Amino acid sequence: MEKPIVHIETTINAPLQTVWEQYNNPEAIIEWNQASPDWNCPSSTNDLTIGGRFKNRMEAKDGSFGFDFEGEYLDIIPYQKIVYKIDDGRKVNIKFAAHENHTHMFIEFEAEDTNPIEMQQGGWQAILNSFKSYIENNGKA
């Protein structure tokens, strides 16, 4: 059965090179990778190569819940596209597009069947918004 595709996007007030580097840098990922202030990402590893793997530890700050978000890179075109497969088998496609001093990010991901699509879309969009805020408000832009 084909999984529904969920779309999110944002425009970041920063050059493409900065956005690409900060999106893929484990030290930066720890800073921005959370959907809400009561969550955090205490660790991140990232081998941005085809066949390489990533692993981001996601935890509630109160210690009540945590999980590893991990997968394998399937396709990479530097500064343009990243495609990966999450360990549960779902695919994610990320596109980066430069527009003057701004960068537009488009993300498509296959929905999982446990949570409502709107909840998944909201959570992923919140993480992308956190990334945008990190870039624009922490001297990265």
From TrEMBL:
Gene3D superfamilies, sorted: 3.30.530.20
Location of the Activator of Hsp90 ATPase homologue 1/2-like C-terminal domain: 13-136
Pfam family, one: AHSA1
InterPro entries reported in the protein's UniProt record: ASHA1/2-like_C, START-like_dom_sf
Similarity comment: family membership: Belongs to the AHA1 family.
Protein name, per record: SRPBCC domain-containing protein
